[in-house]
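Re: that chain you flagged

S.,

Sorry for the slow reply, it's been a week of failed gels. I finally had a moment to sit down with the sequence you sent. For the record, here it is as I used it:
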Amino acid sequence: MLTLAEVRRIALSLPEVTEEGHFGIPSFRIGKKIFATVPDQESLRIMLGPEEIAAATSTDPEAFEELWWGKQLAGIVVHLAKADGRQVKDLLGEAWRRKAPRTLAAKLTRGRFRTVRVPSMSDVALLPERSKARRCAADRG
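Prediction finished late last night. Pasting the structure tokens below so you have them in one place:
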């Protein structure tokens, strides 16, 4: 079971994401582009492409269903009580990549963003090698 607080934490951990209102409901955005909305306490809407929609809905049809916007297949509805947290995290990441500027998405894909909170020393192992060197130099100086 996934909670709305966990969804919010996952979405806001992605680079440059903001949470803003959208017609009375919360939305998660990269810049001005919405990649997910929260219509109620039990569900989440994630904007995805046809391949990701088909994969999610066929993998777990009780947790994921197609989201139609008029006649257009726009994403999935996630039933939080039935959804696997790791899969939702992956789907939010994919939706973010689809909406993020190419340069920012490329940095995430190459592993430049392993964590977006301010790293502690225990996080150093998660950072790419160049970041480790800069962090260690900063700690000495």
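What I noticed first: Helices lie at 4-12, 50-59, 85-99, 102-109, 129-140.

Talk soon,
D.
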